[in-house]
């Protein structure tokens, strides 16, 4: 639990002021002892109190004289560089308080003009009765808000990731076939086959369809589905080709495992 902040003001009550003096003096001497031990620096203190006729010195009268002698041996500019008395200390406090007050006034003025700007946007308040100073402050606030909005828009635009590039439809069939061996390659092969078929004459196309089993009539298909006819055809092929079918002798027509033979007809 944090301690309550103490108001730095003169304590009017005598007993409370005396108790505070003793407690703070003890804490000051303890801090000086710690500073001397931890940092190996020479320190001394001379404390005058309205409650004691003689001043209290720390760490000892001899130690105080040694530190004072060393201090006086320094140049005067160095002696007074960080030295303050009661008057200069109060002057520094006043300057600091004035700066804080000015900063707070600027913040309050900005909040006030922000409220005026919002009321003007919704139509609750006009600017006809405002003075020149108020109008100047309002103009400055509006310009500042516009700049912040522009910076925010610019930041959001920079964060947007560009969409991925889509491959165009003008790619060649060979490129599609080489990059994708799936359905694109099959489609490209089909298109190329149709193009090559168009190069033949109608008679050549009809002959080719008959050799590979395409373009058959229903009655022709019924004949091909007859196993007895198929066996006779295979035997006649073996006799004509001299048994050159080899291990592919069970495969009818031109389907012998090499698709390139389909297009080897004259």
From TrEMBL:
GO biological process: positive regulation of transcription by RNA polymerase II
Localization terms from the record: Nucleus
Database matches in SUPFAM superfamilies: SRF-like
Primary location class: nucleus
GO cellular component: nucleus
SMART domains: MADS (SM00432)
Region listing for Disordered, in residue ranges: 165-184
MF term (GO), any: DNA-binding transcription factor activity, RNA polymerase II-specific
Keywords, alphabetical: DNA-binding, Nucleus, Transcription, Transcription regulation
InterPro entries the record matches: MADS-box/MEF2_TF, SRF-like_MADS-box, TF_MADSbox, TF_MADSbox_sf
Composition-biased stretches (Polar residues): 170-180
UniProt domain MADS-box: residue ranges: 1-49
Name by which UniProt lists this protein: MADS-box domain-containing protein
UniProt source species: Carya illinoinensis
